[in-house]
Predict the 3D structure of the following.
Amino acid sequence: MADYPLNGLTMLVAGYDGHEFMLVRLLIEAGAKVPYLATAVNTNPLAREEEAWLRDHGCAVLYKANYDAEIVALTEHPYDLVVGTTTTICAYAKKLGIPAIYDTNALATRSLMLAQGASDILQLVMQTYRRKDKYERIARFFGEEGAAEIDARPVPGVAPGTIDLTQVVLAHGGSD
């Protein structure tokens, strides 16, 4: 954990199968603040001790969470990083310029066990966080100011309300 300190970083974790409890504990023990853990699982007497530990460390646990609850939680704190098990919560975070890791593909395939497993997880989290400026740049590019520069005429073959990436790039004078 000393190799990948998360001191001062605030993260949201949204999961669906229960392993997110272990992930949040690892993140907190590495120094992160995780004010919110959303999980799709039901409450379980076997998880009470872990839930109590998380709550004692400032993490609210929402059982049977859904996308709407996760979006509300995402707007309640200034997050540095989001770990989500749905592409929609990750996409929403990225839209806001917050680095996001799609847990199912990136983290759930890694072991949380022993020092090497913890190190792998924390390394990926730090690598993603260190790209925050790129996420913010993408959010600005596709945000209100970028969208305002796009010609509002309909583009043949592109559904209304859909961003035509070619048109966006041309409006910005190419890409760099």
